[in-house]
């Protein structure tokens, strides 16, 4: 019965969302890929918000229920049936509003939407009624996330391609030129305008001179504060500074945002100014002050092989006075690739961290990989849950330590971040999954 009711609610909200798009005719920016969708969405919103009335998918609303909610501007009612009834009513009310002149319309000029695929058919279904003006493809990686329910990684990529097929004629296709599989999609739509961005390959928007920015704390000790790099485009070079986050992977969302803004006629210098205020989403390589004068790299939102590798490389490269500690949880939905990829990440962790802490049953293979690569067994600690790991992690810390915390959603590694952050009273502002519904789980 519950499944039937859910299908009915989704059908009604989707119908309302389709009618809203027909009524208000907003520009649609659709983002897909295996990693980086939310960070890209948020960076684009930062760049466009000063110049347009823009709505973005809230949090990571990219499912069959999340997408219509984003289009209608409605919250997730979770398990509250009255909340879902209220959402349906609000959707009808939105459709009854008079369509005023564009400057006074109650509906956004642009929607920035994440489009995800957990199972075969997810994006194909959405693409039957959504026609984006701009499609952005972030990155796939050699082992994409959500591959568990697909026969192969090629099937995952094929599913994402339905969004490219749905692009309006003459629309804009923005692509990560550093991903071989993304590059391979360039000729799918010969009627589209293609813009590329990259760090490693010559592209329309290319980043260079990447470095970690450091600032002194109140004790005069240098601590990581953000990232700096240059973006080269059309013969000019613009400096970019993003505070509060780490990692070369954070460059890609900025490049996507700049290429989007440029396509909509925005000035590069103006966009760079907007990005000074940009904050990476919670749980995505965010810098958080830790207890005992330590520093946390909070990457607890989710995990996948390509994202875990990028996070470990950041831990390796950042300077710190103390130990480097990697807290790594399970990577889910990898199917037949699971054991091999967990072991590979463990081998990488040995070269990036002084201490390895694993969280979860699958993550035991991370410990196995680290041992195989020569990491001292005394420096490896294994726990089944984040609740079990939180206090022991805190007890390991001394002044100057740097702690990377990363895991898939089900690992709930944000609980470890909460235990070791200097100001846990700020958890609602800084950490992922702080909704009441998540606290019940």
From TrEMBL:
Residues 283-408 form the Mur ligase C-terminal domain. Pfam families: Mur_ligase_C, Mur_ligase_M. Residues 31-76, 109-259 form the Mur ligase central domain. Keywords: ATP-binding, Ligase, Nucleotide-binding. InterPro entries: Mur-like_cat_sf (IPR036565), Mur_ligase_C (IPR004101), Mur_ligase_C_dom_sf (IPR036615), Mur_ligase_cen (IPR013221), MurCDEF_CellWall_CoF430Synth (IPR051046). Transmembrane segments: none annotated. The keyword rRNA-binding does not apply. GO terms for molecular function: acid-amino acid ligase activity; ATP binding. This is UDP-N-acetylmuramoyl-tripeptide-D-alanyl-D-alanine ligase. It comes from Candidatus Magasanikbacteria bacterium GW2011_GWA2_46_17.
